[in-house]
Every structure is written in C-alpha cells, then in structure tokens.
Amino acid sequence: MTPCLSYLRVSSSGQLSGDGYPRQREAISKYAATNGYEIVAEFCDDITGKSELENRPGLAACLERIENNGVKVVICEDSSRLARDVMVAELIVRQFQKAGGIILTSAGVNLTEGDDSNPTAALIRGILALMAEWDRRVIVLKLRAARERKKKQDGRCEGIKPFGTLPGEETALASIKELDAAGLTSDAIADWMNSFKHPSRSGKPWRGSVIRRILHRELKGKPHDRTH
Fold it and tell me: Mean pLDDT score of the chain, rounded to an integer?
C-alpha cells in the first residue's frame, strides 16, 4: 500500500466539540482504504477565528513531512479543509506542488493537479473552494433566519419560557387565572400571591404589572384592563 498523510481542520468551536474531526477522519480513512493508501500520520489544525494562514502548526508540520520524509500524498476531506478563502487555498496548494506533494480529497479530486500551464485545473480548484464558501454562508443565513423566526414567535425571545411552563409554576398560574375570573384586580392578585407565598420566577415579591403581563399572554393578546 502507498503511504500517505491525512490533514484535518476545524474552523469553529462547534466543529471542534462536535463531529468535525470524526466526520473528516471517517471520510479520509474510507477513501484511503478503498484506494490502496495507508495513513502513516495525521495532522490537525483548530482554527476558530478568521485567520486562514496564521496558527497552522498542523499544516506546517504536514508540509515539512512532505518535503523531508518521502511521503508525498496528503488526503483531506474536501478543498474547504485547506482554507475557505480561494486565494489562501491556492497558495497552500502551490506550496505542496513545490514540495512535490499531492493533495487528494476524500472524493478523489486531485487538488494539486496542474499548474500555471494548466489553467483548467486551477479553475476547478477555485470553483470547489467557492462552492464550499457558498455552502458555509448559506448555512449561516439559515441559522440566522431560524433564530429570528423563533424570536418572533409569541413575541418573545428564544429561550424565555412563558410563566407556567416550568416545573412548580402550574399551581401558581392556576391561582392567578382563578382569582382573575373571580374579579380581582391585578394588584389584588399580586397581594394574594404574596400572602400565600406563591413564589414568582425571579423569587421577588409579585407585582401587579407582572400579573397583568401573565394574564395578557393567557388571553392571547386581548386587552386586560382590570387594574382597579
């Protein structure tokens, strides 16, 4: 089997703590096993900022191994693992070309194939990098849209639960609704809740304004003007 190296990169803390490395490692190992390569060393970089060339010890060590150890093939998951920026990715490819290295993706694309005399190969590399950047930006936009949609639901921010939905709040909410149905004002309900030591979510004494907000939500936005 032909010896090769593997290169992995994560570009966010989420990828670092999630399946970034395992996913890449699985894709690379599968390609190597089915194409006659034996992975003899693995190099990794954790990049959580926007810098594409700084703080890349894994990439530097991988290039040094290519230059000095006789192993010439590097496998990465896809072109975006080299860099998200097209120009930076091209600079990296050229460094490996100068060292006589070959960079393959887990899909079998040779990223180092061709040079200035083969503009088609360079064009393909650029298109792959642009597609990876486009996919990343689309994901970011989708996540942002999902957050905004969540914030608009029921007029509250994501993560803030209505009173009565957390454990222990059901009894207090039922009392508020019963007292309201009996005709008590919001201030009177607050006094009653404090007297009978029904805890508020914040742990502070109940206020009429808080009772009004809760009842406003329970009435699905209908006016609630019983303050006297």
Answer: 80
